[in-house]
Amino acid sequence: MNWDKDIDEIKQRRKLAKQQGGKEAVKTHHAKGRLTIRERVDTLLDKNSFDEIGEGAGVPAYNEAGKLTDFQPANFILGFGQINGRKVIVGGEDFTVRGGSPNPAGLRKSVYTERLALQYKVPLIRLHEGGGGSVGGTNNEKDRRPLGDPVFSQSRFVPLAETLSSVPVASAALGPVAGLPAARLVASHFTVMTENAAVLIAGPQVVKRALGHDMTKEELGGPQVHLASGAIDNLATDEADAMAQISRFLSFLPDNAWAYPEKLACQDKADRCEDMLADIVPTNRRQPFQMRKIIEAVVDKHDDGKGSSFFEMSRKYGPSLITGLARLDGESVGIIGNDCMYYAGAMTAAAAQKLRRFVDFCNSFHLPIVSLVDEPGFMIGPDSEKAGTIRHGTAAISAVLQSRVPWASVQVLKAFGVAAQAHFGPDGYVLSWPSAASGALPVEGGVAVAFAREIAAADDPAARQKELEDMLAASQSPFPRAEGLSVHEIIDPRETRPKLISWLRLAVAAMQTASPGPYLTGMRP
Amino acid sequence: MQVKSEIAGSVWKTIAETGADMAADDVIIILESMKMEIPVVAPKAGKLTQLHIAEGDMIAEGQLIATME
A298-302, A404-408, A436-440, B9-13: lowest mean pLDDT where? Predict the structure, then answer.
């Protein structure tokens, strides 16, 4: 007598688990141009690094003799693995079993994901495709007694929320994602979706019944909707690109909030000065410029020498503000910049919420922030008032001024109004370009209001307005501010990279004298 | 291919004419928005088949500016 029979059964069960929803279901899934969850995990992780948890969890079927005949695996795959040699935890629904709507074992594994990430303090990646609970319950719940979870059980949203202040969380939507999986998807620091994915609170049939809208799931929650809504940060060209973006995002971050980000060896010269920076800002204030070109000229180039290390996030949401991660002197930094191509770079309600979230994220993982400033102020007008921009904007300013990471601001052009405060962190290092202009509000709008009577009374009102505007524009010059030490330095724009790197070396050394830990703040407006 | 405005503003100047062969990023019109001149560009190369706006028109966010093929 030995254990051979049982050991064989382990083998058989593992084989059955790998079948997922069966050959036909997998074939149908592939025909939609989608990978299975196991293929996704393999695409994401370093080769052969997946260390699965709960492979044997599922729903067995036995014959009359008590022999295992079939096995429906848990439709949530979970395990540890490595990305570029760094430990992560990864989980995701198996759409080939019940369309990803949880079966009992799948639900248990799914709920365990965040707890594992918190226990081992490693980055968490969720690859979503599936629906939430079914009205029929997870497993014939109508016949189950006792019904429901006990009142003293912990809500799954407790660990879900806690992960955000503890470990980096990145999630992908790789097909239809609805209900609870959609909520988990957005409980992330970075979200990416493919072209054929949709993120929905409820699907088309439910929406039609309740509201009468006849819409496809793509119309309801496709990329065009959720890149602009801010629920999703980035679009991926395909599933491999989604995995590549997640890997790139995580490359900037420490394993958890109790560690600092790793500094990489940097091939790019610290004293590199790009000539194009000298005249990238037009002298005509009506003409826009490309802030992204400035960012790319300042941050490290990729080690292969091609392109920049800048990784932009949430481009389509609140597009008057640019947010992303980059390397500077090999250090991970958060980058903020105004994009004057959208409403002159004015802070809209969406841009304010994007900024607040980004600043909190940088603080959670100890990323110094570099802000490239061209802020004309809060967005004005009826739409902006209706959107509550003033409250969202003030909350963003609060987040910036509660910030505890090193902060540098480069005033490229405008810094006007209350919204300008959102670009200067506490004890920040401030550089000013010669093109910088600061004040309560831009002269073009302000002069017409403040000097209305004087302009009207002039012999040539247009000429008087121009004269006043020129006079006040001169007073907004950065030179008097440099004289008064209102900025650390007024610089030749070409010096931006070397100046920032000199500061960053000091700032990072100072930051790292303290022990890092989670970032928690109080209430904001 | 429909070219829509991502911002609200007024049409300051039309640059390209109907029938023109456009390269990606060629300017179709210039909007005035928040006292700045913001170009609306061809997202891809193609022929400009129709302009749906005229100089001076007020433009809403998402409004159709031009059709290209």
Answer: A436-440
**Model confidence pLDDT, tens digit, residues A284-337:** 988 999 999 999 999 999 877 678 999 999 999 999 999 999 999 999 999 999
Contact A352, A421 (CB under 8 A): no
Which of A281, A285, A286 to probe the B interface (max B CBs under 10 A)?
A: A286
> 3-class SS at A308?
strand
What is the CATH number that goes with domain B2-68?
2.40.50.100
- Name the one residue in this structure whose structure tokens are 């209102």: A486
> Given an 8 Å threshold on Cβ–Cβ distance, is B37 in contact with A286?
yes
CATH of domain A275-436+477-511: 3.90.226.10
Query: A376 touching B, CB under 8 A?
Result: yes
Task: Please tell me if the domain spanning A4-142+154-251 has the same topology as the one spanning A275-436+477-511.
Answer: yes
In order, the DSSP letters of A446-480 are: HHHHHTHHHHHHSSSHHHHHHHHHHHHHHHT-HHH
User: What percentage of chain A carries pLDDT values higher than 90?
Assistant: 76
Is A140's pLDDT higher than 60?
no
B39-65 pLDDT per residue, tens: 999 999 999 999 999 999 999 999 999
Residue A158 neighbours by CB under 8 Å, 6+ apart = none
pTM of the predicted protein model:
0.93
Domains in chain B: boundaries: 2-68
Using a CB–CB cutoff of 8 Å, tell me whether A187 touches chain B: no
**Residue ranges of domains in chain A:** 4-142+154-251, 275-436+477-511
**B37 CB burial (10 A radius; 0-12, 13-18, 19+):** middle
- Which top CATH class is A4-142+154-251? alpha beta
